[in-house]
Amino acid sequence: MKHHDEAFIRQLDLMAVKIRKHIIEMLYRAKSGHPGGSLSAVEAIVTLYFHHMRHNPQDPNDPNRDRFILSKGHAAPTLYAALAESGYFDVEELLHLRQINSMLQGHPVCTHIPGVEASTGSLGHGLSFANGVALAGKLDKKDYRVYVMVGDGETDEGQIWEAAAAASHYKLDNLTAFLDRNFLQIDGNTEDVLRLESIQERWRAFGWHVLEIDGHDIEAIIDALLMDSEQKNQPKMIILNTVKGKGVSFMENNIDFHGVPPNEMEYKLAMKELTLVERALEASL
Amino acid sequence: MTIKQMANPRDAYGETLVSLGERYQNIVVLDADLSKSTKTILFAKKFPDRFFEMGIAEANMISTAAGLASCGKTAFASTFAVFATGRVYDQIRMDVAYSNTNVKIFATHGGISVGKDGASHQMIEDIALMRVLPNMTVLAPSDASETRRLVELMATTPGPMYARIGRANAPVLYTSDEVEDIAIGKGIITREGSDVSIIACGTMVDQAIDAAARLSKRGVSARVVDMHTIKPLDERLVLKCVKDTKAMVTVEEHSIIGGLGGAVSEVLAEHQSKTRFQRIGVQDMFCESGEPDELFEKYKLSAKHIAKTITTLLK
Ligand SMILES: Cc1ncc(C[n+]2csc(CCOP(=O)(O)OP(=O)(O)O)c2C)c(N)n1
Ligand SMILES: [Mg+2]
Predict the structure, then answer these.
(1) CATH of domain B188-314
(2) Domains in chain A, start-ordered, CATH in brackets?
(3) Active site residue B146
(4) Contact residues, chain A, for B83 at CB < 8 Å
(5) In this predicted model, what pLDDT tens digit does every residue of B179-218 receive, in sequence order?
(6) Ligand 1: which residue has its CA nearest to atom 11?
(7) ipTM exceeding 0.90, yes/no
(8) Where are the domains of chain B?
């Protein structure tokens, strides 16, 4: 494990809390949307946008940029908050999520929103799309990297496995996938709905380089991402062990918060919890 | 104005599945990780052996349903309209329509009134997609009681069928007596009128009835037809409307291309109809996130807009 500047990691942790507050605020105002899967995805997305990826919010279409594709499109609030905090658009926009005449649609749409690479929301497409972007990078001899995040329930979809086969067949070593392994989907625990284990072995059998880490440990995410360059010719899968609803006590591992926003009381409680964590982090800096 | 009694057609679907399950041993139900939303969960709880949770794998669900049907089961497969049709078109085409299997695809969350999830989830092409498939019957019930009746008929009438309902509660339009007369392939005149015929389906029947009330205040007498079966289309009723009234509109929570409006246009054109006619629906575009009412307003599907369109048409 590489040694990271402690203060820098704390800054990223702080950004993660900030993003979580945005998520709660957005979903509360929108009165709809998906808290659970948005909250579990935070650390990986923060690490990409605020540390690891080469990107320029002033030039969202830079042909040499690294790309991130959110295949589990219902976690749009996390992506939107990261884009806004990066400077792709005004943070104020976040307050209009899911409202009529606003830019921020319930699910990501690449034609309307600066920084959004792919229109998602119908699960199962994003990995194939990412393969296409990675293939284009090879064809054009560009050194950009492609990142994609899929949900664990999402890997029920056959298309995910078609894409898994294609990525290793085409030796897409410029592609890194995250699997948000929170063990929940809508109808229940992933293992009750449609067994996924052993998920590591599955991806290995499809020819991927597989790592499994704590998906809320930013240092571990950075390390896992850096291992890219050491692996030749293989796409990489980073399995993120996460908690659905992470960061808000009563949403954690609570399936009822898959697609239901906080009511007023829950909103206040969630913001209070997150603000406490935020203060403690600030004090530690 | 009388206060409308509201009920959710999704609940009606789930409850009817349970009563069908009690009556018929060969009914099986499949869902793709949305059983709480489609309400197949009611069947799952009552008949766990005859319920198959397929996970987020719609293509697999449809072909599996076809396999079950080929062995004598009546297989209901449910998910949101967007995932129940476009995503699995080839599976439906080969294993359901072409193979003529007894698969009943019952989709919820059709149309733009899905609301805030946005255009990705607002299915406005499903009726068109299903209508072009040989052997396929296409239904769009307008309220909870009609849903109940049509689900029963789906179970007892052999062959591939597709039905779609919306997400939201809907006013109850039919009494239990009236429901008895509902039959696949026969439109219902829910309100008589002599100037214009409004042929509507699904969630838009209620808007059409409201539009007719608005028009009557302006001295325009509007007939409202609930065309719950888009295929086979009740051509006789369409032609009767051509004869009885001076103008006609279709109203649907669907693209104006290929759905109810498309089907009625085909009948009018082939009968050399000179009747003034307009399709009301979603124009050739994707919509956006928003409250259902706001979307109906902005995309001109509200009763107010329907009445306005008709007034212009009659000028
Ligand atoms: C093709 C498709 N089928 C169904 C849905 C409805 N849906 C939205 S989220 C979800 C569950 C996703 O579970 P998972 O991938 O584990 O996401 P997370 O737990 O991270 O929220 C489902 C079934 C969808 N969006 N797309
Ligand atoms: Mg999950």
Answers:
(1) 3.40.50.920
(2) 6-284 (3.40.50.970)
(3) no
(4) 122
(5) 999 999 999 999 999 999 999 999 999 999 999 999 999 9
(6) A185
(7) yes
(8) 6-171, 188-314
